[in-house]
Amino acid sequence: MAAITYDVVVIGAGPVGENIADRVVQGGLTAAIVERELVGGECSYWACMPTKVLLRSGAALRAARQLPGAREAVTGELDVAAVLRRRDSFASDWKDDGQVSWLGQAGIRLHRGQGRISSARVVEVTGEDGTTTTLTARHAVVVATGSGALVPDLPGLRESAPWTSRAAASASTVPARLAIIGGGVVASEMATAFTGLGSSVTVLARDGVLPTAEPFVGELVTEALRDAGATVRLGAEAAAVERDADGTVRITLTDGEQVEADELLVAIGRTPNTEDLGLDAVGLKPGAWLTVDDTLRVVGEDGAPVGGGWLYAAGDVNHRVLLTHQGKYQARAVGDVIVARAEGEPVEGGRWGRHAATADERAVPQVIFTEPEVASVGLTAAAAEAAGLRIRVVDYDLSATAGSALHAEGYRGDARMVVDEDRKVIVGFTLAGPDVAELLHAATIAVAGEVPLDRLWHAVPAFPTVSEVWLRLLEAYGR
């Protein structure tokens, strides 16, 4: 059994783990990273990157068909094989050579295998050949193992071999009929993608489409899916599933009706990848989300840092925000605070401290790559009211700006600004419409920076662009 000591040991080599290790090394400490699968993690191979490739070609084709002059140049349909080849290239054909090479260049040591915490600051790594390497961390162990798809205990579901987000993102063929259980982000994006790729898609959305977004978002996306040929069953709930000998999947709904498909995608949520990490060795429950303090140290039921503060958790696994960019934001804070504590420097916590991931609470940006595209940051109106804020909601039809009329014929979309009336700042902003993702960062700055409305009047949007909506929203609000 080999034994090696580092300053920091990170379990999980996805984008979050990579950024933590890199930040630590840049701060002058040594770091090792443990990974049981591919270096680069879910985002690189089964989520962010490959799924957006599956969506992008269809979005570009729709955009061309919305412009007179361009639509006449479109003489064929989507080349599905070409889309899948491009997806494969972005996923590096599910090989991590490039990512492993980057780790070496960054001065980060990689240990392949299953990492388990065996005692304070000690991680045992079991390789594929059964050998064990013991890693001891002088200062910190960080759990960055992410999350996996949640598959519910539905009669016959597991036996029917359903797709999860991984299978959908890496599919080598497009099923003629695809049923999707769920109506959230993954369900909506994959319904958009596979409808565009030629599948006959049926969405079983018990709680509606994108139910946690502003209500107009779900309405627009549902309408667009139906216009594209998908069947969207709002309120439909699966009761049982079976796969026939010929491969047909039969989903029985709670009302007794049956839906048939060639493949079934289950997209109802996520579960933490903490089952086999040795958490019980430090008094934590295996398979549970990890609770963290403001500097992302793992805390126990009493609220105190585990073992005095050497264990951290970043990314999906701490259940704060399940988004890659927010996990990387946490990673920068974690790396910096570990270095600060190791070197005896002051910890900068609080509302704007560099060692606290405070944006997780009030300024989380998200883009949903459906048709239409959805971009949001901060609180919905409902969430703001639930938080006890006195708010005013301002809505505007995106199609009424000159920029949108130029952008696409028949442009449809909406914008919403949620204003904290006591402080006169924006606490939430949502856009739904073609290509609105690139408008989001301006809203993120306004929300995170708590820019007063009277100052935003001096941030003049260029004409003619869709971003003119900023001026229209301010005019609707009034000085």
Automatic annotation (TrEMBL):
Domain FAD/NAD(P)-binding: 6-327
SUPFAM superfamilies noted in UniProt: FAD/NAD(P)-binding domain (SSF51905), FAD/NAD-linked reductases, dimerisation (C-terminal) domain (SSF55424)
Span of domain Pyridine nucleotide-disulphide oxidoreductase dimerisation: 364-470
Keyword Transmembrane: no
Record text on cofactor binding: Binds 1 FAD per subunit.
Matching InterPro entries: Class-I_Pyr_Nuc-Dis_Oxidored, FAD/NAD-bd_sf, FAD/NAD-binding_dom, FAD/NAD-linked_Rdtase_dimer_sf, Pyr_nuc-diS_OxRdtase, Pyr_nucl-diS_OxRdtase_dimer
The name this protein goes by in its record: Dihydrolipoamide dehydrogenase
Lineage: Bacteria, Bacillati, Actinomycetota, Actinomycetes, Pseudonocardiales
